[in-house]
Specification:
This protein is of the alpha/beta class. Helices cover about 35% and strands about 20% of the residues. The protein has a single domain, classed as 3-Layer(aba) Sandwich (Rossmann fold), CATH 3.40.50.
Length: about 240
């Protein structure tokens, strides 16, 4: 029987690199995990001004198709959660589980900007409009506060050095397939000190996803600050359930 493969989808401004500790940790449990760069992120050179939500979905579908055999589990962080439902819908015969890790979920016709915290939305439009390629960037201070508040300044700066601008158009494209349109098994893993998606926000995403919220100790980017915690949860650990 073919073994299951876990595909790891990064969030905004990140890339495959952010999953290194999780990939190596899962390997110790005999779990094959793969990470990759979404279009315009990490080392991918797709022009950011041309990238829309469909391009991101197609990139993940291509990664699923590149797994030669066996079932696939999708794990998505942050805004990578927007891609889970459409990919599961596109490959229902391959996807056996979707996992939201401190991630946002979209219902049908909802846009990513709709679920972005209201106090940040106007700033996102301004940053994108002032960029050369309709993309978003974040300052080190904001990244350290919102993404990596459990990291030391040295480690946070090392992570920040890897960040790339985030294509903005995917935030504006409505989801043609929402989480309510797929019946695949799903989990929602939240971080107890997430300053990007605090517990009330994460609880709303979990409810939209139709999943019980499972609480992990960590900040928003806990795959970087607490990779062993993420590995434990994905390899069969027992996070604390809420609600």
């Amino acid at each position: 029987m073919a073994t299951e493969t876990t595909l790891l989808i990064h969030g905004g401004c990140h890339g495959a690199w952010c999953w290194d500790g999780v990939v190596s940790g899962l390997a110790e449990f005999g779990i094959e995990a793969r990470a990759f760069d979404l279009p315009g992120c990490g080392n991918d050179q797709t022009p950011r001004a041309t990238i829309d939500l469909d391009d991101q979905i197609a990139a993940v579908v291509a990664q699923v198709d590149a797994v030669s055999d066996g079932p696939v589990r999708l794990v998505a962080h942050s805004i990578g959660g927007w891609l889970l439902a459409p990919v599961a819908s596109a490959r229902p015969d391959r996807i056996v589980e979707i996992v939201f890790l401190a991630a946002s979920a979209l219902t049908r016709d909802e846009c990513g900007i709709d679920v972005t915290p209201a106090d940040r939305r106007e700033g996102y439009f301004e940053v994108a409009a002032n960029s050369p390629d309709n993309s978003l960037t974040i300052t080190f201070e904001a990244a350290w506060n919102r993404f990596y508040n459990h990291l030391s300044e040295q480690d946070a700066r090392a992570a920040y050095a890897h960040l790339t601008p985030q294509p903005f158009q995917p935030y504006l494209d409505p989801a043609r397939v929402g989480i309510e349109d797929v019946s695949v098994a799903r989990r929602y893993l939240a971080a107890d000190d997430d300053l990007t998606f605090p517990l009330d926000v994460a609880s709303g995403f979990a409810a939209s996803a139709g999943a019980t919220l499972e609480l992990l100790p960590g900040d928003h980017c806990l795959m970087l600050s607490a990779p062993s915690v993420v590995v434990g949860a994905l390899a069969g650990g027992s996070p604390r359930e809420v609600g």
